[in-house]
Amino acid sequence: MFLQRKRVMLRPHRPLAALQASAAGNIGIRQAIQSDLEALYQIEVTCQEAWSYDQLQEEISRDIAIVLVAEGTCGLCGFIVGWHVADEVQVLELAVHPSARRRGIASDLMKALLAHCQRSGRAVSIAILEVSANNGPAIALYTRLGFQTVGRRRGYYSNGDDALLMHRVLLNEAAAPGRLI
């Protein structure tokens, strides 16, 4: 899915020092709410193919969207957006503020999204995502989480990068209640 980018003026939400402090401490994951939008956007603009403020707002309001945030005592440091459609989880965006990366937050967000979908009571058999073929750290993360490359979209991103299509087969019937899939 190619999202049209819209320029939106960045308005400060929390100081960077507060964000760094929260990433070093305990992080909780919860469902996003409208008041998180500014912080989500601040994290999003650090990404290569950043979504606009309006796109993030639309996802928080969308019925099929699941938007989870990673939060410490000093603010938000990451988020994930997924759609639970039929028996699939489509991971649309996973972003962690640069100062909070390499601390397991992205992995925790992905696991929380998959667990949330499993607990929904609706069947989930596969998780799918697209990632830039040039984003080595993200590809390594997804591979560690059990995703496999199953295809490529040439020239998918606005900078000309290819997208790798990755999926992870989820076996709901093999997962014990409350256990991550």
Automatic annotation (TrEMBL):
<comment type="similarity">
    <text>Belongs to the acetyltransferase family. RimI subfamily.</text>
</comment>
<dbReference type="InterPro" id="IPR050680">
    <property type="entry name" value="YpeA/RimI_acetyltransf"/>
</dbReference>
<dbReference type="InterPro" id="IPR000182">
    <property type="entry name" value="GNAT_dom"/>
</dbReference>
<keyword id="KW-0963">Cytoplasm</keyword>
<keyword id="KW-0808">Transferase</keyword>
<protein>
    <recommendedName>
        <fullName>N-acetyltransferase domain-containing protein</fullName>
    </recommendedName>
</protein>
<dbReference type="InterPro" id="IPR016181">
    <property type="entry name" value="Acyl_CoA_acyltransferase"/>
</dbReference>
<dbReference type="Pfam" id="PF00583">
    <property type="entry name" value="Acetyltransf_1"/>
</dbReference>
<dbReference type="InterPro" id="IPR006464">
    <property type="entry name" value="AcTrfase_RimI/Ard1"/>
</dbReference>
<keyword id="KW-0012">Acyltransferase</keyword>
<feature type="domain" description="N-acetyltransferase">
    <location>
        <begin position="27"/>
        <end position="171"/>
    </location>
</feature>
<dbReference type="GO" id="GO:0008080">
    <property type="term" value="F:N-acetyltransferase activity"/>
</dbReference>
